[in-house]
Amino acid sequence: MRHLIAVLLILAAPLAASAQERQYAVLSLVGDQLLIVQREMATGSRIDQNIRRPVPMPSPTLDRAVLLAVDEALRKAQPSSTPVLLTTRDPALYAVAEKSLDSGGTARVFEAVRPVVANAKATHLILVTKHRHRAMIRLMGGHVGSGWLEGLGFYVDHGNGENAVRATDTERGFISPFTYLTISVIDLARGTVVAEDYVIGSNAHSVPVGQIGNAWKALTEEEKDRQLTALIREETARVVPKLVKQG
After folding, report:
1. Which residues form the domain of 208?
2. What is the rounded CA–CA span in Å between residue 181 and residue 37?
3. Is the residue at 132 inside a domain?
4. Cβ-Cβ contacts under 8 Å for 35 (sequence gap 6 or more)
5. Which of 31, 37, 103, 221 has the highest CB neighbour count under 10 A?
């Protein structure tokens, strides 16, 4: 038995060393725009009737929030980690990431960003891209929503005009930040995705009785920024540790 244990320890040693030597680079391609989606009633139709307004982001504010959130989650999961945070504002790369929602997936995006990662001196890349999924906004007791969401933004439902105090959250209307993302861990030496998961996060805020009909103003601009940032941190903290453990 002692001999067997000794052999197992010897075999495990290279694996432990390999984990310690892993160096992560992190790149986010989700911050080119903020998506504002306003729910529109479409009874009996499968077509997305929602009003969609993409708001271009001239600064890297959103990508920076994602990078810092991943960095925080990674350092908590692996205290010895020193991630390299990468930034790019190349419209061509965001365009490739956008097209990958329909075809090509992560592999297509990775081929496009190879030059960005080339000098990072990393063994693995944590790549954050947009994920498209049907709207599933979290409310107490379940999920609601219509149409499709992707990336970062806000889902707005102005309700049905009901102004009674006893009206439900859905009837009064609500606003919710959302984070619909794909987080991938890529082995740079092999050029393969070794772990991947999807983030479908939301945090709805119902409209107070006195503000029914204008869900957008249920949160101030500062609160919108704070709520979206908090949701990014919450979802990355949930997903990143599992991914680096798998990969």
Report:
1. 20-246
2. 16
3. yes
4. 52, 53, 54, 55, 149, 150, 151, 152, 153, 154
5. 37
- pLDDT of 166-222, one tens digit each? 556 566 789 999 999 999 999 999 999 999 999 999 999 988 766 677 899 999 999
Residue 166 lies in a domain: yes
* pTM for the whole structure: 0.87
C-beta atoms surrounding 226 within 10 Å: 13
pLDDT digits 0-9 by tens, 202-215: 999 988 766 677 89
Q: How many structural domains comprise the chain? A: 1
Residue 15 lies in a domain: no
Burial class (CB in 10 A: 0-12, 13-18, 19+), 189: exposed
Please tell me what DSSP assigns to residue 217: G
Cβ proximity of 185 and 191 under 8 Å: no
Query: Hey, what are 166's tokens?
Result: 């006893």
